[in-house]
């Protein structure tokens, strides 16, 4: 089954979605309103590629999405129909990921954040709505710390303050398994980490997305496998999170309610580390891969956040809470997930 087919499954009809300012009633961008451009750049000798979908008269600042390690610049095409009509939408294969050049593990998050800074400079973009997902969330937070003046709003999804201990242990084994060509076993384990186990709770498209995760790993060519192994090495050799000032901008931390990799308890830790005013929100019927499992709803959430619309009483999410309110529920969230932050 193709990724396109998997992502299309289980989508509610467009008429059931709240309309976003500037969005056509059928959920599609106005005709010829959103041209697509791809551009290659080089940062310190490493080539990388970005995808830019633009709107002529934006309703908000450009939306920069930094996806997870298994995502590329094209993983967000289905979100574009909601987000591109609002503003210029930018996705990117940073060095070491997607179709970009291989990046040795000696280059960590500081290097990748610096590449993001160069990307915006090359595009002539001064300030962005910054959306970071999983590994992209760690890059986004590091970039926000290094370039606070470039961030208008900050949204982190599937984020944690540290790499979960069980995932770190798995990465050490995967390095050896990749060398042996044991991709089938790794694919099964990856799906097990990213997807909540049976019985945790209702997750939309759980079976289809689990199959997609498995197929992506099994289908990797030697170059992709080499990048995956180097990514795991990069995670082990560099700081995931580094304490430091974060810009006091509107900030939102998002977790799938059944996420067992970066649990709700871990999400509360992240929002508590952000400046006052940051909020935390759980997406219903989703786990770590909420942006894939609930594409329409996730895009709607990003659109609302980037246009300062209310996040209250959303039909697909819990009510947003502040760190003060969230602290009281952290212990409960950890108990419900069955996994505590290491």
What does this entry show, briefly?
Residues 1-31, 323-342 are annotated as: Disordered. 40% of the residues lie in helices and 14% in strands. The chain is α/β, with parallel strands linked by helices.
Average of the residue pLDDT scores: 85
Summed up, the helix count is 12
CATH architecture: 3-Layer(aba) Sandwich
Spatial strand arrangement across the major sheet: 1-2-4-3-5-6-7-8
Structural class: alpha/beta
Which stretches of 5+ consecutive residues score pLDDT under 50? 1-32, 325-342
Count the domains: 1
**Percent of sequence in beta strands:** 5-15%
What's the CATH H-level homologous superfamily?
Answer: Alpha/Beta hydrolase fold, catalytic domain
Number of strands: 8
What gross morphology would you assign? globular
- CATH topology label: Rossmann fold
Largest sheet report: 8 strands, mixed
Query: Can you identify the CATH class?
Result: Alpha Beta
Order of helices and strands: HEEEHEHEHEHHHHEHEHHH
Q: What radius of gyration results from the CA coordinates?
A: 19 Å
How far the N terminus sits from the C terminus, by CA atoms, comes to 36 Å
Helix content range of the residues, please? 40-55%
InterPro entries: AB_hydrolase (IPR050471), AB_hydrolase_1 (IPR000073), AB_hydrolase_fold (IPR029058), Epox_hydrolase-like (IPR000639)
Domain AB hydrolase-1: 62-293
Region (Disordered): 1-31, 323-342
GO molecular function: hydrolase activity; peroxidase activity
Structure description:
The chain is α/β, with parallel strands linked by helices and 342 residues long. The chain has a single domain (14-163, 239-337), classed as Alpha/Beta hydrolase fold, catalytic domain (Rossmann fold), CATH 3.40.50. The chain is built from twelve helices and eight strands. Strands 1-2-4-3-5-6-7-8 form an eight-stranded mixed beta sheet, with helices on both faces.
């Amino acid at each position: 089954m193709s990724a396109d087919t998997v992502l299309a499954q289980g989508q509610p009809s467009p008429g059931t979605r709240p309309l976003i300012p500037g969005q056509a009633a059928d959920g599609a961008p106005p005709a010829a309103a959103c041209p697509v451009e791809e551009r290659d750049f080089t940062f310190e000798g490493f080539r990388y590629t970005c995808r830019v979908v633009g709107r002529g008269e934006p309703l908000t600042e450009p939306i920069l999405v930094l996806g997870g390690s298994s995502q590329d610049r094209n993983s967000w095409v289905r979100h574009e129909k909601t987000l591109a009509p609002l503003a210029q939408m930018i996705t990117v294969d940073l060095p070491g990921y997607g179709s970009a050049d291989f990046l040795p593990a000696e280059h960590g998050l500081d290097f990748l954040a610096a590449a993001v800074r160069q990307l915006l400079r090359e595009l002539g973009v001064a300030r962005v709505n910054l959306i970071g997902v999983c590994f992209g969330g760690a890059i986004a937070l590091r970039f926000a710390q290094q370039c606070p003046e470039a961030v208008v709003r900050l949204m982190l999804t599937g984020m944690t303050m540290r790499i979960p201990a069980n995932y770190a242990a798995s990465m050490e084994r995967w390095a050896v398994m990749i060398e042996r060509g044991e991709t089938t076993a790794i694919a099964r384990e990856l799906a097990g980490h990213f997807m909540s186990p049976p019985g945790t709770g209702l997750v939309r498209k759980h079976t289809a997305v689990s199959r997609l995760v498995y197929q992506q790993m099994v289908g990797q060519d030697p170059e992709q496998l080499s990048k995956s192994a180097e990514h795991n090495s990069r995670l082990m050799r560099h700081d995931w999170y580094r304490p430091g000032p974060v810009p006091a901008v509107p900030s939102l931390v998002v977790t799938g309610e059944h996420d067992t990799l970066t649990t709700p308890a871990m999400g509360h830790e992240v929002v508590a580390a952000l400046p006052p005013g940051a909020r935390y929100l759980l997406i219903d019927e989703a786990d770590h891969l909420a942006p894939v499992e609930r594409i329409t709803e996730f895009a709607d959430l990003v659109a609302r956040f980037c246009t300062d619309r209310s996040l209250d009483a959303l039909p697909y999410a819990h009510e947003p809470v502040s760190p003060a309110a969230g602290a009281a529920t952290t212990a409960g969230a950890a108990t419900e997930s069955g996994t505590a932050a290491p």
